Amino acid sequence: MARSKYLFVYGTLLDRVETDMSRFLSEHSEPIGKGHFRGKLYLASWYPGAILSEDKGDKVFGRIYKLKDEERVFKVLDAYEGVEDGLYSRKIIDVYVQDHPIYKSWVYLYNLPITDLKRIASGDFLKQ
């Protein structure tokens, strides 16, 4: 399996959302900065779901973190994100961050149909 020490988050794992899991992530990582990836963001329920896009104009905004212990963090976060149940999948993608052109970073991508979901046009869960 591919490896990366980086995780990009765009929803309930953001530190400004203040959930138990965002606090867990903050305790087990160091923030790198704000960034985005090419994708589309949807409101899946009270939480967002993102999918990849080929269009350079489609951006999902969030923050990237460097993980202190990837195995421990992903054991907890994969369960939270419903990876085993197929709600999200975890994939390494290109993430664009302010002064660094590209990080190869893990991201949780929404894995269910988006047909009936409301798109968050700004690409920013905090500005929906």
Explain the overall architecture.
By secondary structure, the protein is mainly beta. It has a single domain, classed as Hypothetical upf0131 protein ytfp (Roll). Helices cover 15% and strands 44% of the residues. It has two helices and seven strands; from the N terminus they run βαβββαβββ. The protein has helices at residues 20-27, 70-80; strands spanning 6-9, 29-43, 48-52, 59-67, 88-97, 100-110, 118-119. Strands 1-4-2-5-6 form a five-stranded mixed barrel. A hairpin with a 2-residue loop joins strand 5 and strand 6. The longest helix is centred in the middle third of the chain and has 11 residues, at 70-80. The mean pLDDT is 95.
SSE ordering: EHEEEHEEE
Beta-strand percentage range = 35-45%
* Overall strand count: 7
What is the overall silhouette? globular
By helix and strand content, what is the structural category? Answer: mainly beta
Radius of gyration: 13 Å
